């Protein structure tokens, strides 16, 4: 069995999500061969050097899961793209590139966070290219921790306000981009998060039936996608 989750947006202000996640690690995840976390694991991440006691606690819980025998994989999201090797070593997890091809229960599957698929949101795409540029990352890491924290707060506030103002289709994935990416990587299954719109979409890629599975976020309830010999099954469960 393999489990995939995304968009937990962990932060101290949401102890209900934290408790649910820690319980998930101690119970259901212990039975999995691997756990994949596809981005926006934390609400914000300003650098491994800025880890708080709370974030060390989360790393310790992931390490315990890894040492129990479950492989743990983590992918950057748009909120936590500055997670680095120090956190991953402490947490006992492997950092994946975005996109990433994984063989899950015998099938080649494309894993993504999903924000790069939202090409109609031109303003966000420009910001994404700027922030993910190696030179920009170097400059960001060179800033003091206090300046990074202020910048992160400003970006979060701006992002929330702009998202409220945009049409729903603008902040969703672009269908043509989905087909383009799946064709490029020669896959029939794409799994991603980011949009907070859990669903399984059927589509055609070069005349073949394909599927796009959108992972749910952890806000009003939690979501996990389970892959086993029975296939793909995503279901919500209570945070409580």
Tell me the total number of β-strands: 11
Shape: globular
Beta-strand residue percentage: 25-35%
- Integer average pLDDT: 93
Strand order of the largest sheet: 4-3-2-1-10-11
Give the class from helix and strand content and strand pairing.
alpha/beta
**Name of the CATH class:** Alpha Beta
The helical percent reads 25-40%
CATH superfamily: Metallo-dependent phosphatases
User: Would you tell me which CATH topology applies?
Assistant: Purple Acid Phosphatase, chain A, domain 2
In N-to-C order, the SSE pattern is EHEHEHEEEHHHHEEEEE
Q: Cα distance, first to last residue?
A: 24 Å
Q: Number of helical runs?
A: 7
Summarize the entry for a quick read.
The chain is α/β, with parallel strands linked by helices.
Structure description:
By secondary structure, this protein is an alpha/beta fold. The protein has a single domain, classed as Purple Acid Phosphatase, chain A, domain 2. Helices cover 36% and strands 25% of the residues. Strands 4-3-2-1-10-11 form a 6-stranded mixed beta sheet, covered by helices on one side. The longest helix is centred in the middle third of the chain and has 21 residues, at 145-165. It is globular. The chain starts with a strand and ends with a strand.
């Amino acid at each position: 069995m393999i489990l995939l989750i995304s968009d937990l947006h962990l932060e101290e202000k949401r102890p209900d999500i934290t408790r649910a996640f820690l319980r998930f690690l101690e119970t259901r995840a212990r039975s999995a061969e691997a756990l994949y976390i596809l981005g926006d694991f934390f609400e914000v991440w300003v650098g491994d050097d800025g880890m708080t006691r709370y974030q060390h606690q989360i790393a310790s819980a992931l390490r315990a899961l890894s040492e129990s025998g479950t492989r743990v994989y983590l992918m950057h999201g748009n909120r936590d793209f500055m997670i680095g090797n120090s956190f991953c070593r402490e947490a006992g997890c492997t950092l994946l590139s975005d996109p990433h091809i994984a063989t899950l229960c015998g099938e080649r599957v494309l894993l993504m966070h999903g924000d790069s698929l939202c090409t109609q949101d031109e303003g966000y795409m420009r910001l994404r290219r700027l922030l993910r540029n190696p030179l920009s990352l170097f400059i960001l890491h060179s800033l003091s921790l206090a300046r990074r924290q202020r910048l992160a707060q400003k970006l979060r506030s701006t992002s929330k306000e702009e998202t409220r103002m945009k049409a729903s289709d603008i902040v969703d994935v672009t269908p043509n981009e989905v087909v383009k990416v799946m064709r490029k990587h020669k896959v029939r299954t794409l799994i991603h998060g980011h949009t907070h719109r859990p669903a399984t979409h059927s589509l055609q890629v070069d005349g073949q039936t394909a599927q796009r599975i959108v992972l749910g976020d952890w806000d009003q309830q939690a979501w996990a996608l389970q892959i086993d010999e029975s296939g793909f099954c995503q279901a919500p469960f209570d945070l409580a």
